[in-house]
Amino acid sequence: MLRKLTMLLLLLITINSYAQEDAWIYLTDKPNVSAALADPISILTQKAINRKQNHNVIIDERDVPVNESYISDLKTQIGITVLAKSKWFNAVHVRGTEADINALGTLIYIDSIDFADNGLDVLSRSEAIQDKTNVEDENVIFTYGDTQNQVEMINVDNLHVADFTGEGITIAVMDSGFPNVDTMGAFQRLRDNGDLLNGYDFVHRDSDVYASAASSHGTRVLSNMAGFVQDQFVGTAPDASYYLFLTEDAASETPVEESYWVEAAERADSLGVDMINTSLGYRVFDNANYNYTPADMNGQVAFITKGASIAVEKGILVVVSAGNAGATAWQTVGAPADSPDVLSIGGVDAAGDYVPFSSQGGAAQVGYQKPDVVARAGNAYVINETNSIVQNNGTSFSGPILCGGIASLWQAIPDASPTEVMDYVRQSASQYTTPDDLLGYGIPDLDLARSIALSIDEELIEYFSFYPNPVNDELNLRLPSSANQVELSIYNQLGQQVLRKAIQADYKTVDVSSLATGIYIMKLSSETNSKTFKFIRSSY
User: Fold this and answer.
1) Which CATH number fits domain 2-30+65-129: 3.30.70.250, 3.40.1190.20, 3.40.190.10, 3.60.15.10?
2) CA dist., res. 38 & res. 41, Å (int)
3) Global confidence as pTM
4) Are 245 and 267 contacting, i.e. CB atoms less than 8 angstroms apart?
5) If exposure means fewest CB atoms within 10 Å of the residue's CB, which of 243, 291, 368, 485 is most exposed?
6) How many CB atoms lie within 10 A of CB 414?
């Protein structure tokens, strides 16, 4: 009898645990938007404001924090636990029973409810959401030791020799744990230089980001960028600055981790971070009702993917590991690597050959290439939490290897926008003209990317560029003086041509105020060259 009661109790506990659902609650409005936008220093750091101005990024309503009074009220609702918030989406992540969450729909400040289990959605979210070192002179000479292959593979060593080591670039690392980063020898150089900035544990709501020992994954990831052991190990951006954000709960896999990530990205944006590196990916969860499918990896479904795309809109260069599902039935990249706006990094071995576990591009990524590029993921060298140099497999490490390399590149071409930097990286890659779903555009040559950006080899440069993005009324075009005439075509998301005109060379302005708000594709073509861009028509 006791055994039956125990089994019944366990059954009830199991049923009750699955009765707890995750959902995103979208709010109707924000307080004092006009006042906040008129005084942006009240909601952003000066570094964040400067970065946005440098890259022609508009400060808009999404930068305004969520209404805290709404959050306080949600915390008082029966059966509701508030887990995370997002100013970009004006949303709050909650957990509770289906009935308790649906009961929130009667609150006047609730715009819509979106369950992580799509089968529970009674009403879809609103249309607005749907649319939506040794030093000699000026040269740096490192002895790379174990990291020589993975550094030289992407030719970042030549950037280091030219004294481009990531200095002045700030990177936010989103991961699952950073034990001992604040004490171990591999990051002593980072700490001594004042480049280890503060962080935050969004899972445990703790300012001590080093306290959690549940996972050392973030420590290893950081080592690929910032690690330094004299004559034995050098990361690809040893002089960049780093914020560390713990967003992954190592003990479980639930949708709230996506919300933690977006919240951390918003924090990074407010702090003026230049780059985000994340080696996390989301496909399946502990509760199978929340699982994504490969078809969902289209850049438009996953909450974290849409958040990553907004981060790019805000002027942050986002580098994401493609994932390790290449040899599984899933096969394709996970979220947020499926975003067309981020740089997704696949993996190769020491010889530069594709490693079978590296996630591939798939049918869901219509009109864009995934992965974008690759770096070493097979038996990559990392430093673990005991300060030991070891080898690990995974695109978790090709991502930061390349992220650090791009930080060093960006230091060399500081006037380039994030989108331009990503494009230079793709252009420099080994199979830029013949990309595929295994290697994307191939292995980048970051020193060549610098040459492309500086027009050292004019035959390789694509001269077309434009700003701002997002745009309100006018697009400013930069066209090659060698072109007698350039044809401009703009298409909407359905592939319909909405604007076409001929333009003369040099800087030109195009009026796009007649276009509806949304995402567009622009193609510029001359007699000898053409280039396609994506831009956002904004109402702000």
Assistant:
1) 3.30.70.250
2) 9
3) 0.76
4) yes
5) 485
6) 10
